[in-house]
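Researcher: I'm comparing several assemblies side by side, and this is the next one on my list. It has 729 residues spread over two chains. Same procedure as the others: predict the full complex and return the structure.
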Amino acid sequence: MANNENPNRDLTPMENLERGKEKRGMGIKTRRRISNTIAYVVLILISIIWIAPFVFLIFQSLEVSSTGWSAHVIPKAWGFDNYIYLFSAEANFNRWYFNTFVIALFSCIGQTLMQIMMAYVLSRFRFKLRKPLMNFMLILGMFPGFLTMIILYNVLKDLGLTQANAVPGLILVSIASSGMGYYVIKGFFDTVSKSLDEAALIDGATRGQVFVKVILPLTKPIVIYTILTAFMAPWGDFIFASYIAFGSSQGYNVAVGLYQWLTVEQLPYHYTHFCSGGVVVSVPVITLFLMLQRYYVEGVTGGAVKG
Amino acid sequence: MATVVLKNVKKIYPGSTEPAVHDFNLSIADKEFIVFVGPSGCGKSTTLRMVAGLEDISEGTVEIDGEVVNDLQPKDRGISMVFQNYALYPHLTVYENMAFPLRLLRNPKMSNDEIYERVTNAAKILGITQYLTRKPKNLSGGQRQRVAIGRAMVRDSKVFLMDEPLSNLDAKLRNQMRAEIILLRQRIQTTFIYVTHDQTEAMTLGDRIVIMKDGFIMQVGSPTEVFDRPGNLFVAEFIGAPKMNTFMAKLVKDEKDYHVECFGEKIPVTGEKARELSEKGIGTQTIVLGIRPEHMVFSEEPKPGYIPVEVVVNEMMGSEVHLHVTTPEVPEGAYDTLTEAEARSRDFADEQLLLPGGKKELIIRIQTINLTDKQRAEFVPGKKLYLSAESRVMHFFNYQKGKLKTNLLYGPGAEAEASLAN
């Protein structure tokens, strides 16, 4: 072909395509490699920053050469002495741990029931003042909970639910206002077609059966999300727990109890104990989270998509 | 064994003053298949939901099997229902979906064996046995609708309610399911109330059809009755597709017979129709004349009594041809005209279509087999034709401005008459 000899000839469409492919293909590959590298470096840096305290905590909890503050990260002597101390009668940790567990368990049950039932009612029933009630609760919920600290303390004190009796007091506090957290759950319930309720009612179900047999199975992610958050919140609660139980070691939860070991007077004697306490506290939360994480992700994002 | 009686049933939605359903009176016989039909917003679904117990009844009573059920829960009314969007439980398999109403039964509780028996039996009838272990999301629209019907079937309910069950299906499947509902109906002998906006479904399924508009019953009757003897102009135009041609005309009484004058032509009214008119003592008056598209006859040559028209659209439907034609202009001042305020008012909606000056569009329906090849090629836009109709296919409607146009001969249904009084 004559064309072949001419270096300035126009390229045939086929050749053009081939050349373009090569050019673009290389570009994309290189660019992707660079951006991936950058992303990985940044992510690795962030995860080091994020994980370091936990590694540090675990190392310190295994340090047995001294129970006080130490300047080294890797223990000089390894052992489980701190954990043994933690569960011995000497420390009050068992009591705190038990308190926290009871509070978390009952708050979790109570809060979940209150919230899902509240959300169902607001999603499905039409009654007078429904809208004003919802707005009112939403606005109330915007104020931080500890604004009510003083009045709550006085009320609980009059009921005799402070200090050594702080556990039922704390359960009461966390359940009492939980219905106001209906909002996200209601949004989730709203995505379930109302005709399912109607079909079930006609099929012979009572309102309660509709809720338990139709709505709850369909909204499992949000229910589990509610259970998780309701369990975790009291687990790490410090402000309420510290002032309602104040002064009585019998009423402490783990956060308040462990914090006693971080005061200036206690730190030299209990620092490694605190670290082992921290590890033990995180075990149930991590277990729960790993078990239910699939639902957790769905629960956080699922409400947005109509299903 | 169940009759359903609705007495003066009325529905006013909260926050609204205008009732969605006005005095609704209907007595449904045992094992009857009743169809509520009407355009959207006519109150047909609301009425059905009141029978089901999903809506409160504002006034009046609903009786099922002789018992007033106004204050009964849906589950205590002995009804089952099929929803437009199927409303299957997504988390349950087809088997569990159908077993759901049976598992809820108390006093006596149903044994698992009997549940199995009933569900598989219903599945066999509906041809969904192979899908019993699937979840609804893995089914096609038609299969889902079958499951929904199956769920309603397994219980021995007194009344079977269906709320537009076929409107989510495509046209072909809809025709197939319609035929299956007819078969189903023969198998399960029970009372049916079926809601639809599709007049074909209403005509093919119903023993009796209830045609509704704006919360009023327009006519109740068998498919033949409402087609042959529409009580008023609304029913006449609603039933039948394409819709009936209607236009203003003048009915004139001669010595012996009658004739109608429209578009400057005189079409004779003779025979049985003329006898009926004169028996009713009907004299010369302005009327609305209705002729169904399939009843029009055409000529290619001008003839006395034939309206000259011009073809504007030719729709070849296969077995038949639909010709859209325009009439000559209606002479100025031939009939009442609307004042400006009336022309904008909703109360005169009917007139706005009938009265305006200028040309009117009609449709004629011709069997393709009756046309020669030459005619088929020639009937294109611009072609002049001449239309007429025999007197036995004419429908005469009373014309009074702003009022329901009732059939001169057969009158309105009793219910429509009540709505006229309002």
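Model: For your comparison table: The interface with chain B takes residues 193, 195-196, 198-206, 209, 213-214, 217-218 of chain A (CB under 8 Å).
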